[in-house]
Amino acid sequence: MDTKILQEIGLTDSEIKVYLALLELGSCKKGPLVKKAGITSSKVYEVVDKLIEKGLASHVTRNRVRYFNAAPPSRIKDYLLEKEGILKQQERELEKVLPVLEAKKKLAEREVDAEIFSGWKGMQTVYNDVLESLKKGDAYYVFGASKGADEEKVRLFFTRFNQKIVEKGLKGHIIFNANARGNIPNVEKSAMVRYMEQTTPTEILIYGDKTAIVLLEKEPIITLIKGESVAKSFKEYFDAMWRVAKP
């Protein structure tokens, strides 16, 4: 039988084997259980004890011999409901401490001037921060946008990002290098776009008080700088290029 659902609700492989063996054997001693479940003799007591803790097994002692029994399969549903209750309680407790955790993070952020991210997961982290940091109607600015070393991955990544930009209602202003024209489908629907023959060898992203310097190598490298003065300086550079860039 497919035991995937039993794994998903929190039973280990050994617990599943022992529980199914007990269902088939009925009340039994250690020896038959070890043979049927296919686990080591030294481990069987530990596994049964865990099943007992979960209410899925029991044992009795007769003539100094321990016999094990499986709880009815309907007990699995009760176990799941109990887990759900525990999770809800944990969620309530977490809600109480979240403000403290968020405050600690904000305090730490004030102490960090720059961070370096690498790879496509790093790219995802930085561009998710754009979506999370800005609110509807806010603007972000990009210059030096290019095809990158891996053109297909760049196209796929920014196509998805632009879809999210549209959903969030952000206002993009992008200056592409001329050789990247048409690389991102429908980008004009999510941003104001202009082109230059060559802007910078890297892509610069400015949003809020943050500036990301993005090297679109096979495995991207991103330096994220936090600071109003830095963002303002790069924005002034962007404005100068925007005035001479072509639609």
Query: What is the CATH first-level class name of the largest domain?
Result: Alpha Beta
Count, helices: 8
Which superfamily, in CATH terms, is the homologous superfamily of the largest domain?
Endonuclease Chain A
Please state the CA-atom Rg, rounded to the nearest Å: 29 Å
Low-confidence stretches: none
Mean pLDDT: 87
**Count of discrete domains:** 2
- Percent helix, as a range, is 40-55%
Note the beta-strand portion. 15-25%
CATH third-tier fold name of the largest domain: Endonuclease, Chain A
Structural class: alpha+beta
- Estimate the global geometry from the Cα principal axes: elongated
How far apart the termini lie comes to 62 Å
State the major sheet.
7 strands, mixed
Element order: H for helix, E for strand: HHHHEEHEHEHEEEEEH
* Quantity of strands, as a count: 9
Word description of this protein:
- The N and C termini lie far apart (62 Å).
- The chain is elongated.
- It has two domains: 4-71, Winged helix-like DNA-binding domain superfamily/Winged helix DNA-binding domain (Arc Repressor Mutant, subunit A, Orthogonal Bundle), CATH 1.10.10.10; 112-244, Endonuclease, Chain A.
- The protein is built from eight helices and nine strands.
- The protein has 247 residues and is an alpha+beta fold.
- Strands 3-9-8-7-4-5-6 form a seven-stranded mixed beta sheet, sandwiched between helices. It has a two-stranded antiparallel ribbon with strand order 1-2.
- Helix content is 51%, strand content 22%.
